[in-house]
Amino acid sequence: MARAGLTVDRLVAAAADLADEVGFENVTLSALARRFGVKDASLYAHVRNLQDLRTRVAFLAGGEMIDRIAAAVAGRAGKDALSAFADAYRAYALERPGRYAATQIRIDQALVADSPALRRTAEITYGMLRAYGLDEPDLTDAVRLLRSTFHGYCALEASGGFGAPRDVQASWDRAVAALHVALEHWPRNDHGEEGEESRSE
After folding, report:
1. How far apart are CA 148 and CA 127, in angstroms?
2. Do residues 82 and 183 make contact, with C-beta atoms less than 8 angstroms apart?
3. What are the sequence ranges of the domains in the chain?
4. HSE value, Cβ hemisphere, 13 Å, CA-based, for 197
5. Model confidence over 158-168: pLDDT tens digits?
6. How far, in Å, CA of 100 to CA of 117, rounded?
7. CA-to-CA distance for 88 and 128, rounded, in angstroms?
8. Rounded distance, CA 158 to CA 132, Å?
9. Which CATH class is domain 8-160+168-184?
């Protein structure tokens, strides 16, 4: 493929596809260069280094994921919104494993603040939780509960970690229902703590 055909967008999209194929941790500049039939050095006109490439993949994947979630939760509230959010999250994680892994990396907070996709993720997530009557610091605590539950479940499911005969989908549905109950009966904080966690939470 001609070197002149390289663009940042094409490189990032190809890196995201490569991540889904071989694992996000195996995405390298050399592997990407081979995919385009060019020398590694040709990529540096478009991305600074491997970290820059991986961060761009994370932003791409984050945008794709929140687009799915936003479409799923539109017009919904309460348990319906939570279930739609959870199902869209899980579907993306299982269908796009490399991209999903990219969304879990730590990103410089200055870059997070400039990312429309991550700001939209925070707006939709916090907006859904505010419908349960939560304010800070309970909002951040609830976001952490949802994120750790969803991520932990998806990671275990993807690795074949659930060995019991119980249907995995049924357990997922029950877990989401339990989260709904927890959010409806959230223990209120009486200590005056403040502060919304970073937008990447």
Report:
1. 18
2. yes
3. 8-160+168-184
4. 15
5. 999 999 999 99
6. 14
7. 14
8. 30
9. mainly alpha
